TrEMBL record:
Organism of this sequence: Pyrus ussuriensis x Pyrus communis
Cellular component terms per the entry's GO annotation: photosystem II; plastid
Entry keyword Plastid: yes
Protein name in UniProt: NmrA-like domain-containing protein
Highest taxon of the lineage: Eukaryota
Any one GO BP annotation for this protein: lignan biosynthetic process
Domain NmrA-like, chain residue ranges per copy: 101-350
């Protein structure tokens, strides 16, 4: 790990406290969330998160039981509340730090790298928390950021990365091969607790639109409970819910069409308002500098919500060729999820299929943005549309493909 700066006695004490914390022993599980009114509770500086799961035979009569194609499913009763405990103590005012010093968590991801680039372009001192890995994130150093090695799944590695940091921007999420709870719940709780103890001045957390409406999806429920934990922590924060990234469309639809491979979709009319991650990054830093946004929950959505079929049609038009579409019925996703639930080693697959099932339902992932634009002082006309994004992509990629083919002596090149 790279050296960041000397640690004062006060910071050393907070480091010891942060590393001594106990993480929640119970994970978010499918069920209804029952929240206590924050006006009736007093939240001291020290926090822990208490989640109480009632056994099935203690379920109240008000708990829902729904009939589905796979049988009757009873939702579990759940309580989420903050309570006093042997947790973090904010040692304010602490050692002064520059407001321009930020830590980006998840800096190598689709959104994270755009956050880093935007921050550097705007003159911030950027430190990136990156997990140790065989291929180091040299591109972040090349851009001008400082890289420190730490792992959210190992809480003891977190505190040292926060020394001298004013603001945390959390873009991280677990890898597909990892249990969702490891990084997205336990790791985020540890990060927030450390931020509290180290006197971090602001915390930006990215969540998922409508996460409060789908407790049956572990990832969405975890995001919602993390929102609540951050709100109750007392840290100055901004929560940003996202609908979908335009960049994700490239690998899912654009590339398979160009390579004449199958494009996978469902038969559900879900609509998603995709946004360019560069716009997400730009709006994030506008919000970061706007004191009126402190403590607020914002949702960022693109100019228009699109169905899967509309996106594929758009890609076909710009690519100049038809897609080989393989449609997967939503009913198949449901059955597959139930089957993977039967085995312990496939539970995480089932959790991710649950998220896919929501995306494949008759849902709209979008919100009106006029109020948010007004709050941030942004002109909605400056937000990139999906048509413009895909047109630029296909124009550039097709030009490169033609150049490569023209320079090659082969006559049977396939892309």
């Amino acid at each position: 790990m790279e050296s960041v700066c000397p640690v004062s006695d006060r910071q050393r004490e907070s480091l010891k406290m942060a590393m001594a914390w106990r993480l929640p022993t119970q994970l978010p599980t499918p069920g209804n969330l029952h929240h206590y009114d924050s006006k009736t509770l007093s939240f001291p500086a020290s926090l822990s998160w208490c989640r109480t799961l009632a056994p099935d035979h203690l379920l109240p009569s008000s708990s829902s039981s729904t009939s589905t194609a796979t049988g009757t499913h009873t939702r579990r009763f759940m309580k989420c509340r903050a309570r006093a405990g042997a947790g973090a103590v904010n040692l304010a005012p602490g050692t002064p730090v520059r407001p321009t010093s930020i830590l980006v968590v998840g800096a190598t991801g689709t959104l994270g790298r755009q956050i880093v680039r935007r921050a550097l372009d705007e003159g911030y001192d950027v430190r990136c928390l990156v997990r140790p890995r065989p291929a180091p994130a040299d591109f972040l150093r090349d851009w001008g950021a400082t890289v420190v090695n730490a792992d959210l799944s190992k809480p003891e590695t977190i505190p040292a990365t926060l020394v001298g940091i004013h603001t945390i921007i959390d873009c991280a999420t677990g890898r597909p091969e990892e249990p969702i709870k490891k990084v997205d719940w336990e790791g985020k709780v540890a990060l927030i607790q450390c931020a509290k103890a180290m006197g971090i001045q602001k915390f930006v957390f990215y969540s998922i639109h409508n996460c409060d409406q789908h407790p049956e999806v572990p990832l969405m429920e975890i995001k919602y409970c993390t929102e609540k934990f951050l709100q109750d922590s007392g840290i100055n924060h901004v929560i940003i819910r996202l609908c979908g990234f335009m960049q994700g469309i490239i690998g899912q639809y654009a590339v398979p069409i160009l390579e004449e491979k199958s494009v996978w979709g469902t038969d559900a009319p879900t609509r998603i308002a995709y946004m360019d991650t560069q716009d997400v990054a730009r709006l994030t830093f506008i919000a970061l500098r706007n004191e009126k946004v402190n403590g607020k929950l914002l949702t960022f959505a693109g100019p228009r919500a699109w169905t899967t079929q509309e996106v594929i049609t758009l890609c076909e038009r710009f690519a100049g060729q038809e897609a080989n579409i393989t449609t997967v019925p939503v009913s198949v996703l449901r059955v597959t999820r139930q089957l993977t639930r039967l085995f312990e080693w496939t539970n995480d697959v089932a959790d991710r299929l649950a998220f896919s099932e929501v995306l494949s339902s008759d849902t709209v992932f979008s919100v009106p943005m006029s109020e948010t634009y007004g709050l941030l002082g942004v002109d909605g006309k400056d937000i990139v549309t999906l048509e413009k994004y895909l047109q630029d992509y296909f124009t550039n990629i097709l030009k490169k493909l033609k150049d490569i083919k023209a320079q090659s002596k082969q006559s049977d090149i396939y892309f």
